[in-house]
Amino acid sequence: MPLELVAVLLTVTGIIGLGLGYFLRWLLTLGKRGTLEMDIKERMLEAEEEAKRLTFEAEQRAEKILEEARKDIREREEELKKTERRLIKKEELLDQRQIDIDSEVDYIKERVGEIKELRGEAENLVERRRGELEKATGLSTEDARDELLKQIEAEYEEDLAIRIQKLDRDAEERFERKAREVLTTAVHRLGNNLESDILSSTISLPSEDVKGKIIGREGRNIKAFERATGVEVVIDDTPEVVVLSSFDPVRRAIAKLALERLITDGRIQPARIEEFVENAQNEINKVIKEKGEEAAYECGILSLDDRVISILGRLHFRTSYGQNVLAHSIEVSHLAGMIAEEIGADVSVAKAAGLLHDIGKAVDHELPGTHVAIGIRILQKFGVDKSIIDAMKSHHEEHPYETLESYIVQVADSISASRPGARRDSLENYLKRLAELEAIANKVNGVEKSYAISAGREVRVFVNPEEISDYEAHRLARKIAEQIEKELRYPGEIKIHVIRENRVVAFAR
């Protein structure tokens, strides 16, 4: 076979193979396209159904929202209609009231006119009668009145004298009762406690070895400390305790603060002692000023000179019979203000004089004279109002009472100083009486516990409800009162409260 024929056959075979391959590929492609079209149609149908479903749900939600909105609008419309009806009723009521008021005003005007006419007629009638009487008797009105008074005095002279005495006695009793009410009200409204200070300060030591550090080699540390502070350091056999003693409370406060910080620091030596004492002095000066400002602010006295406030603050470290003088001054200020308010005196002057009445005690160990005289000089020097000075200078009766406020300050000072528990000389008796009151109540059968309160003016007794009935509680109160009257001596009266409280407790588990 010739090569040309073979080549032609191969060529024809290749062409036929290519045609068959193309034809098969076309068939495969046609089948796949039909499948894709079917998928696309199915997805389009699903999408249309999902869209319809979402549209339906959206329409349902929108309808529900619209329905709620319509309901809310209807409710608001109803409320507005109700409010409108109420307003209309109120307007009608106001209109009716205005009509009634106008008619009443017109009626009152008519009555006023009638009363004026009647008053004029009555005055004219009185004048005519008076003229007729004067003509008939030959006496003027003044002469007739004098003659009548003379006859009455002559006939009822004894009765008038008795009546005047009774009025004087009643007036005195009434004024005394009013004074007691004013003082009792002031004390009751204040009723605070005063903290008692001491004349020496005690410092606790972390260990007994610290005493040696405080003394120092050959006593140089303790000598340096006493020299820098002016305070005596007492180191005795009491374990882990050092006592600072000084007549000057400010020096004692500085020494206490400095020594406490030296003990905390641990390096006690003369150079550091001077440094710590100086720092303590600066801090105590700040405390003094703060205490003075707090006292003035608490009492509402805001126009004082800064130097007066600083001197006033020193009273925080001063005591009198164990009573803190600054706290006492604040208490006197409040009491004076309350009493002045009750009787119509100048409250601001009374309060300022009460606060400053003992200011001389802040420096009475440094200047000659009584604390009243020193206080007067201090207040005059720093331009305090004369009315305040006049009100404070008579509280110990060294000067005559010149104003009503001076009496008030003296009374307030006496109340603050003499009330039970305020000063140390009566503290033991005060505490003893409270203990005896509670002991008398506690020894009665059925009493669980008792408390003496209000400076011993009241006793609250708690009884066992299972042993004491309500009726027996009245008898028990009377019994305790009789026992107190029999066993104790006391001023005034003591109120006994018997409290019967029944409590039931259960547990839920």
How would you summarize what this structure contains?
This protein has 14 helices and eight strands. It has helices at 3-137, 141-190, 209-215, 220-229, 249-265, 270-299, 306-313, 325-343, 347-356, 371-381, 386-392, 404-418, 427-442, 470-487, and strands spanning 200-204, 232-234, 241-245, 319-320, 323-324, 447-453, 458-463, 495-500. Helix 9 packs across helix 11 (386-392).
Determine Rg (CA atoms, Å): 50 Å
Spatial strand sequence of the major β-sheet: 1-3-2
Helix content: 55-70%
Q: In angstroms, what separates the terminal alpha carbons?
A: 116 Å
List strands and helices in order, with pairings.
Blueprint: H1 3-137, H2 141-190, E1 200-204, H3 209-215, H4 220-229, E2 232-234, E3 241-245, H5 249-265, H6 270-299, H7 306-313, E4 319-320, E5 323-324, H8 325-343, H9 347-356, H10 371-381, H11 386-392, H12 404-418, H13 427-442, E6 447-453, E7 458-463, H14 470-487, E8 495-500
Parallel strand pairs: 7-8
Antiparallel strand pairs: 1-3, 2-3, 4-5, 6-7
